[in-house]
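Weekly puzzle thread! Below is a chain. First person to post its structure in token form gets bragging rights.
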Amino acid sequence: MSANDMWLNKIKWDEHGLVPVIAQEVGSNDVLMFAWMNRDALAKTVETGEAVYWSRSRRKLWHKGEESGHIQKVHEIRLDCDEDVVLLKVEQVGNIACHTGRHSCFFQKLSTSDKGGEWEEVEPVLKDPESIYK
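Winning reply:
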């Protein structure tokens, strides 16, 4: 590791070498998505200026938007007080962050009543996912 990478040591990586990451939209402050990064993903994000995550299911680096074109241009990177969560302030290209074709992955809201609760979709699909992923 070079002296230029020492900043990565400040992060408290979990037992799998990962850190949780929240992507938040610059300007609106909408929380767009949650993902994971390993050291390589975070270093690549800093190097390219675009969000690169670690896909736990595919076990490989994932450049956000590599298939959809909905990249995230990183404006700022922050580390929380416990140094175990990263916040990316991003510009979401194409206004779609979610693979469901919505602006945010957090489109389901719990509505509660005396009969219990249920999840309702509160954000519209902006683009049919079938047309995004071919």
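Puzzle host: Confirmed. Bonus trivia for everyone else. The helical segments are 39-48, 129-132.
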